[in-house]
Amino acid sequence: MQAATIGGRGKVLMPILFIGLITLFQFLIPTDRHSLHIVHIALRKLYFLPPVMAAAWYGLRGAVYVSLLTSVVFSLHAVLDWPGNYMEQANQGGELVGFWVVGLVAGWLFNREQCHLKDLVQAHEDTLLGLVSALDMKEHNTNLHSQRVRQYTLLLADRFKLDETQKKAIGLGALLHDVGKIAVPDHILLKSTPFTEEERRIMNKHPAVGYDIVNRIKFLREAAEIVYAHHERFDGGGYPRGLKGENIPFGARLFAVVDVYDALTSQRPYRTPVSHEEAIAEIRKGSGGHFDPRVVEVFLTLPQQDFDAVNAAVAQYTM
Question: What is the DSSP letter of 204?
Answer without folding.
Answer: T
